[in-house]
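Entry 14. Two folds queued back to back today. First construct below, sequence then structure tokens.
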Amino acid sequence: MKSKKMYLLLALAVLAVCLFALPAWANERLATAIAEAQANMPDKVTGEPGYLGIPGGPQLQWWWGLLWAVWVGWIFSTVGAFGGIMAGVGHITMYGLGDYAKTFGKDAKLNKVLTDSIRVSNQWLVGCSAALSSFNYWKAGRLVAPLGIALAIGSVAGSWLVPWLTAGKISLKAYLGYFGLFVLFLGCYLFYETTPAGQGKKKAAKAAAKAFQDSVKKQRDGGEVDMSEMGVKVQKFTPTACEFTFFGVEFNFNPVIPVIGGFIIAALASFLGVGGGFLLVPFLTSVAGLPMYLVAGTSAAAVFIGMINSIASYMMLKGTPVQWSLIGAELVGIVIGSMIGPRTSKYIPDVWLKRLFVVLALYVGVRYCSKGFLGYSLVPPF
């Protein structure tokens, strides 16, 4: 009951942001970019203030942002990934910000301000969903805290470094190409893991997944099962070794490896303006050998830490503006979607969670990779 009240208060708080906040965090960087566009392309910066208060900018509907964010929160809290990628699809395509940014040319300051704004807006959504998902999976005994902590330690440096190096230097076209390329690569890799050859290497993960599914079935049939009691139990945690059990199956890993992995993943995720879950999922299933039922919560914990650092770096160090009214509406949707995800994912077989990830990765990867590098999309929009 307390958790429901907490969600309600959080939803009311972000709704207040949506209704009463200023359109954008106005700053010198945004003002300079608008002034340059007005001097060089006056016909493109005229009319009613739209996104970020830019004259003639897109007029975004808060309710559309809320609905799309429900989907973003659900997909991230279900598979531990794709929240930032789906947020990016919303901001780039659904809201038309990608096409709008391209009208200013890749060398224009406003193009790069809009690109950075898309990147950090994605991360606001993922950070909120990651916080809620981490809490829900921890309560359910489906979060490997030591592994999440090790990944988070590595992510701190990576999520500060990349915004400092790249903010204001990446055009939308280059961003789309790299965004799609990474997603496409990971989709292909995850597809391999759903094949018999890939599945054959994951004996412990398969055993744990089967034990979990059997318990869910027993509970659904009216049997008494304490799911949290059978959840993650840490047996040993030192700087060089960690051992834990999940539904009676033993797992172990060296914490040094996820620290290094966390740094690399956070650096790439921060560059792409996403949460990094789509990189963490293959890392946790392949390197750590976890079943998908543990991946979502553990991934969310690491993503949350990385998002806090990356958002602060983009907004405080580089003055990246965001549309607060849109962010507020989207966070309401994130709260709703993140409440539903953990409650529905346990009814979806482990292999189908991976296949859902693969289908989305292939679609999004081909679309944005071709749009960024070829100038047009090889697949239609949603």
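Second construct, same run, same settings:
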Amino acid sequence: PRGRDGRWGAAGHGGRRRVRPSLLRGKVACGAGPGAMPGRGALCLGLLLPVLLGCGSAQPGACPALCECSEPAKTVKCVNRNLTAVPPDLPPYVRSLFITGNPLTDLPAGAFPAQRLPDLASLNLSGNHLRTVEAGSLALPALRQLDLSGNALVSLSPQAFGEGGSPLEELALRGALRDHGVLLSLARLPDLASLNLSGNHLRTVEAGSLALPALRQLDLSNNSLVGLRNVSFQGLGQLQSLNLSDNSLGVLWNSTLAQFRSLPALRHIVLGRNTWVCDCAIEDLVAWLKESNQVEGKEALTCASPDKMLGKALLKINGSDLNCSVPTDLPSQLQTSYVFLGIVLALIGAIFLLVLYLNRKGIKKWMHNIRDACRDHMEGYHYRYEINADPRLTNLSSNSDV
């Protein structure tokens, strides 16, 4: 029973009962007053304890302290926060994650746990200081876009995206490679459709690093490529766009042009801002440009050397502009020269052996004479040595002289 003041243990006026809102003022009235039921306080405490613990613990989906989160947009941004490790409490709803401009140097295994981030599809890790990406660090089941630009990668584990391959479709590595061997780890990305390798000072591309059957867009711009003889585009049957601008290409040989012709889906090739050498070796490239519709902006391609051709459009070059009385393929010319030199040396050797054979008797007699002369000479030395070594022979020699 409660009294008029609403407290337990007193009869109320007129049989009415009032509930005093003690909890709203931070007070707990469980088990208070005379006549309280035994154990009521323990029961109330047991009910309130989980609530109190829940108030002090992190709520599911809470945003990390140094990040900005938008649950409606499924986006988390941790930009320029001086992070040295990936925040472990990323909300599970995130689909687009930006961790940029931080001093991260390593991505260890489990840096992005697949169980906690099942929907993460776009990951931007550009502008950090990443050097190593370890096995299992990017094994995310929904990852489609990855940006590692502006880092200093020297090691990218072939198992970084998981043992069973990765659904990754877009990868950006702009200015991110310090060891070009990293490219060999990309072969485990069978679904990769877009690859950006611009700004990495590439002089060549490792054989096998472009074995990506689903690749549709390849950006090799702003590198240091001087030729494509060792670059194989075979197997890129889905390739649609190839950017080779801002390199040091002087000429494209027939072997490379034949590869371009063999790619059925290739429709866009960018060759601008290269150092084209307009001598006889460029005839094949000029002929291909005039007949092909694959090159974008081909009218703007101009000669960088020699001086007499400086600034001349490649499409306006004709046979009279080039002095092509000598062979145009220098490697073939050198190969022919080596073959001719070998034939000449073989002929000289054969003549020398023939002369020796024809004069074998005279040579044999000459060698015998030399042998006899050497023998007589050595016997004289031996005789003098014996005389000098024996005192009796020395006295005898002296008496004989007298």
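Quick look at the second one. The longest helix spans residues 360-389. Confidence is low (pLDDT under 50) at residues 1-38, 40-58.
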